[in-house]
Amino acid sequence: MSFLELKADTHRQFGGFSWMRVLKGALLRRTFRVVVTMRLCQAAAKSRGALRVMSPVFKLLHRVATHMAAMDFSWQTNAGAGLALTHGWGLVVNPGAKIGCNVTLMHGVTLGRSDRIGADGERTSHFPTLEDEVWVGPHAIIVGGVTIGKGSRIGGGAFVTESVPPYSMVLGNPAVIVKSNCTPDVMNAAPL
């Protein structure tokens, strides 16, 4: 776990960083607890020292944290610093998804894979990429090898199957761009 990632995650949650805020959030905020346990699991997996021995314990803690928060959010997900999970209920993130820095995910969001089967029968899987400062509204679904451009906002209930250019606002099912050059929606943006 990079100290900077956890510091940025804490800043997004509380508007500043201190170890007391990390402890308070891990104990009292179910969505923040998921982020903390994910960072612990990732730190243990990268460690070559004593922290690696704690990996099974951290994975168990993460499983309990996601269960208590009613989320399916793998510790293996590539998530940048400053991740904010708001409400969280029903959140589903495929471990192959890539999430940039200062991203906000609301409840019911799905970041899912799409599979294509070629003429030769070979299956290829594709996963979404969310660039920095993306805001994803409640119950939005983003599927497949799409890229959501920096600073974009995905409206609640949107079904996104095509890439979105930076600083765009997307609504609907199927999703359409309703505004370009929009301002990113990042509450308590972590200084990176």
Automatic annotation (TrEMBL):
The keyword Transferase applies. Its EC number is 2.3.1.30. The keyword Transferase applies. CDD domains: LbH_SAT. PANTHER family: SERINE ACETYLTRANSFERASE. It comes from Duganella vulcania. Signal peptide: none annotated. It is an enzyme of class 2 (transferase). One of its GO terms (molecular function) is serine O-acetyltransferase activity. Pfam families: Hexapep (PF00132). It catalyses: L-serine + acetyl-CoA = O-acetyl-L-serine + CoA. It comes from the Bacteria. This is Serine acetyltransferase. Coiled coil: none annotated. One of its GO terms (cellular component) is cytoplasm. One of its GO terms (biological process) is cysteine biosynthetic process from serine. Gene3D superfamilies: Hexapeptide repeat proteins. The lineage of its organism: Bacteria, Pseudomonadati, Pseudomonadota, Betaproteobacteria, Burkholderiales. Belongs to the transferase hexapeptide repeat family. InterPro entries: Hexapep, Hexapep_transf_CS, LbH_SAT, Ser_O-AcTrfase, Trimer_LpxA-like_sf. Keywords: Acyltransferase, Repeat, Transferase.
